[in-house]
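Pilot study result, target chain (307 residues):
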Amino acid sequence: MDYLKIFSPATVANVSCGYDSLGFAVDAIGDEMTFTKTPNLEVEITNITGADLTYDVDKNAASAVVKKMLLEAKANFGVQLTIHKGFSPGSGLGSSAASAAGAAFGANQLLGNIYSELELTKFAMFGEEVACGSAIADNVAAAVYGGFVLIRSYEPLEIIKLPVPNELRLVAIHPQIEVKTKDARAVLPKEILLKDAVTQWANVGGLISGLHSNDYNLISNSLVDIIVEPHRKKLIPYFDKVKNAAIKAGALGAGISGSGPTIFALCKGDEVQKEVYNAIEKSYRDKGIDFELYTSKVNPEGIKIID
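Predicted structure:
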């Protein structure tokens, strides 16, 4: 293979109760990237559209991943990249993760598919570190594996792919404000009460059990975050208004996607998804803040070749 074009999905991380350990891939939005083999052994970004990102191959998450992979595989070729960002960086929907994971997938195809999904996740985590200073796995693993994933362990890295109930749907609103990841981490408490930790662990267990058993009531009861959300929601204007509107309209639950500012809601079925979409839109339309609103299924396959 000398050329391919891929779709690398946006992702929702944390999923309320699963801070830094749960994520899922989005079907409707993501990046498109192309990879072309070249004989000169160099990695080069030839075009970036949809966002203002660096062309420096050592500072761009995508090219840094490709460069690392070619070096480790002792490849006898170089790669030219193009990147089209299908959603905004800084949205809380895994923008750098889509680039990093997409790059790992694309480079692996050109190398003859020599690396496993776990190894691709590790390479993509390097891209996350380049982009934002932290080698976090939840977004990139969701993009690589597709569907829902659990990061069971970081040392050693262990990823568990979880089932996705057929009727699970997503509504997400991205207010056009900036929430820096470092600021979102800075507001978190250094210590938590044991009783709060127990509640959170139980919610993670309940959510995973609900995904396995297609128990939407259990999923709904488990989409509760009592540790991170109370502190981070202060960074997102009208968070409680949006969340309450979504749940009143029938959403299973709602929370902060990644470090924000995107707010996600999970729903059962297309009809409820429409009701939740309308309720969220109505709750934000008169707030004087521009926003983008998305609907999607959960993406079961993750990154895919489209050309």
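One observation from the pilot: The mean pLDDT is 95. A full batch analysis is planned for the follow-on phase.
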